[in-house]
Amino acid sequence: MKPILELKNISKNFPGIKALDQVSFSIIPGEVHMLLGENGAGKSTLMKILCGAYQADAGELYYQGEQIEIHSPSDAKKFGIAVIFQEFSLVPYLNIAQNIFLGREFSGWIPGTIDHSKMHAEARRLLDSLSVEYDTYTLVHTLGVAQQQMVEIAKALSQNAKILVMDEPTAALSDRETTLLFEMIHKLKAQGVAIVYISHRMAEVFSMGDRISVLRDGQYVGSADPQKTTPDELVQMMVGRTVDMVYQKNFISKPGAIALRVENLCSSNGIRDIHLEVRCGEIVGLAGLVGSGRTEVARAIFGADPVTSGRVEVFGNNRVGEPFHSVELGLSLIPENRKSEGLALIRTVEENIVLAGLKKLFPSNWIRLSRSEQVANDLITRLRIATPSGKRPALVLSGGNQQKIVIGKWLSTESKIFIFDEPTRGIDVGSKSEIFSLIYKLVQDGAAVLLISSELSEIVRVCDRVYVMREGTISGELSGDLINEANVLKLGMADV
Amino acid sequence: MSNMHILSKNLGYRNYFQRIPGVAMMLLVGMIFFGILSKDFLSVSNLTNIGLQSSILLLISLPMTLVIMTEGIDMSIGALLTLCGVVMAYTLSVTHSLPIAICLAMCCGLLIGLINGSIIVYWKVPPFVVTLGTLGICQSLALVVTDGQSITDVGEIVQLAYNGKVGGVAIPLIFSVIAYFVTYFLLYQTRFGIYVCAIGGNRESLNLAGVRTNFYHLAVYAFSGLMAGVASILLTARMSAGHPTAAIGMEFDAIAAVVVGGTSFEKGNGWLLGTLLGVLTVGVLRNGLNLLGVPSSVQVASIGLLVLVALLIDSMKMKS
């Protein structure tokens, strides 16, 4: 059958990163095309190009054989491309019909008014065609995630979508809801809708996919037929082979006493039964897919989220309560979101870098500016933060330098345990390697490091031991020679 | 999948407490409370009086509901109401023409509303800051126009707008009913209403749907200003004067009425009937306390208390 949409040699660059590099890809009506790749492989960039949120730097798009260009979301709609992101585009306090036809309401006889009955009848017809029974007057915020997903699908269909792109649609669904979604997908296939389906779950890749394509580091690796391939082969395609000098480690870790021990930890944000320990002088990785609960573990250990059961021991002391207590015990967290959680962006580099250490520096609560400036400037030199002066606001610095400030914050508290949550996200290669040499230095000085990262190559090259998370709990531990990308990926993906 | 439907029905039958909105409960409790303490309270003339007194508050609380639904706020509305009243009284004293005075008062309201909206929408300044700024400006302008004195030379005819009756119904009540239904129509029967809800609920998706979001967002503030102009007619009529501090702090009552009525500051969750009930609750409270001889300085505290109790009831309902 002829493809409805073809992408040829699509490239997209962001400063310092080739997000997509000459990707070619085609979609055939009535097929479910599975799209696989590690975090950061370029899947979401590709989706955004399809829906018109981004524009490709190079390459061509063909719609039913004719070359087209997509400049805006409304262009994408014109060609019947609808994208359902993981974060929904619904308005919580409007009802189902109003959401389906948002921006395309049926007019009543007075200009500007709405023909409610027609809108609800039309919505009813759409929902019926999907065999969904909800009342079209139901407010969307009262619906469950799966039901909202159905509304999204109905919304896409109401725009006569011929190409439906879904980003991990089952990530938030229960088994029963997943079954329902799959039934729906079968129906859409039968109606000739082409579906691009992004997934991390091997079982559904094989049960639902008609064709599988794999992306890696922004490049198209290849396609596979689900009948003929195996999960291992796919993992191999996703991991590939790239050698990276960034993580060059020229010392051997000498793990010492246990610094951090976590037992049976459960928290209100969905993680359960977390057991882990980190020794002085070692780097322990916490791997897993985005959304598997890694950040939540970090926050629970640090006391930023309430712990419902289990315990966290820091050098044998039981940690209870708030982050305040964690810092007293020598624990520190370098959060994933440096801009919102790590920095006071409009304050100066100096002010940011001494923020966490003020209590240690000035136990009497009186701040001597000269002393704090001196400490800040020592850290700026030590971390080689590129700023013309310590008086510049943190927001003008590059991502890598901002990250160094966040790390510097904890150096002045004399922390002994560091939890790094995605320390190199959105950072150029040069700063990456500097940040790792910093981490190595900490470890050689006897600190304990827990490193959360989505980049497998990072985890594999840097860590002495690795815990892998899946769906809110730890699915396995790897050490020594067993730490390789394929093993980490296998433990991280469900149903392999 | 239809079991969710059944579920909500079951809840309803099992728990009446859940179904009655906090504001209705408070209005009822307030009526009973003051009815017992003061025998004048439940008389027809006093209840009509509450309606009259609440009309101005209702006229500015209705647009406030829409503004809050867009996750914004209009702090300037009390000062703007004052300014419009002063403009109206001043025009009357100069021209002695009621139509021109009404027209200018409404233009003044609309203009300030458009200024508020433009700065908020196009320069992306937070609504609180912008309207706090215009609050100060309007207040000051009102003092400048009047030179700090009341303008009493407004003629006799204007009083009719507050004291007059059409077909046996007091004119402020007619204003209230029309304003309520116009706002109701805008909110629930037009595109504008859906977009108001969507601006607060998910602005990004509204943009992606190809809607001119900025235009509708601006219109909300323009509507708010215009309604302040309309309300100023009643205000001037009631006092038969233009006073430079007439409606100082009225935004407090309006925001309280909206919040008590169950409109939330997040996600475009609003309820217009709730605002009507909220306005009446505030009116009952003020009137009842007046009858009991409670000084007005204490009344402000009681409205603050009302807001807290309303939110408490709603959060208790969430838990139960």
What does this structure look like?
- The complex is a heterodimer of chains A (496) and B (320).
- In chain A, a hairpin with a 2-residue loop joins strand 4 and strand 5.
- Chain A has 496 residues and is α/β, with parallel strands linked by helices.
- In chain A, strands 6-7-8-3-9-10 form a six-stranded mixed beta sheet, with helices on both faces. A six-stranded mixed beta sheet of chain A has the order 16-17-18-13-19-20, sandwiched between helices.
- The radius of gyration of chain A is 25 Å and the shape is globular.
- Chain A has 18 helices and 20 strands.
- With 320 residues, chain B is an all-alpha fold.
- Chain B has a domain of 195 residues.
- Chain B is 77% helix and 1% strand.
- Chain B has a two-stranded antiparallel ribbon.
- Chain B is globular, with a radius of gyration of 20 Å.
- Chain B starts with a helix and ends with a helix.
- Classes of the chains: A alpha/beta (496), B mainly alpha (320).
- Chains A and B meet through helix 2 of A and helix 1 and helix 10 of B.
